[in-house]
Amino acid sequence: MSRPRSFTPEEQATWAPVATMMELLPRRLDAQLLRDDDLTHFDYFAMAVLTRADGHSLRMSELADLTNATRPRLSHVIGRLEKRGFVVRSKASDDARGTDVRLTHEGRRKAIAATPGHVETVRDAVLDALTPEQQGQLRQIAHLVLSRLDPSGQVAGARGDFDPR
Questions:
Q1: 56: closest CA among 48, 64, 66, 67?
Q2: Of 98, 131, 137, 142, which is least surrounded by CB within 10 A?
Q3: pLDDT (average), residues 71-97
Q4: Run of H or E residues at 14
Q5: pLDDT per residue over 101-116, tens digit each?
Q6: First-residue to last-residue Cα distance in the chain
Q7: Packing angle of the helix pair 60-67, 41-52 (nearest 10 deg)
Q8: Within a domain: residue 21?
């Protein structure tokens, strides 16, 4: 029986700050969006995906795939956004078992209004800390890791054609 591999000192020195960054960054993004726009980062991401969809509408199952959300989590979030008038749900016209979700005019306005603060937070927390060359390296590294985590390119942020602003 082979022994489990452990981290080399170099691997540990790489992994520890990456893991810490993965813990701290969502908290920072949520804090800014909650403070300024009363949205979580996931609320904003779901609305951003809808802003780019044809007719600002998607099947709930497709939105769940694009946002990497479980169906129950997405249903809960969409319910909250619906109560605030940012989205509406309706039976899918081509399949009575399916549900479509559409971003309302007010929801689109909210997502657009939240964008400048979100972009500034991302710049401050990540992008401004890096040179343009380092940003390219980070992008390349992120795509390499995402190709293992999401090999089919299902999640919107893993696709090269999606800009989540």
A1: 48
A2: 131
A3: 93
A4: helix 9-37
A5: 999 999 999 999 999 9
A6: 49
A7: 120
A8: yes
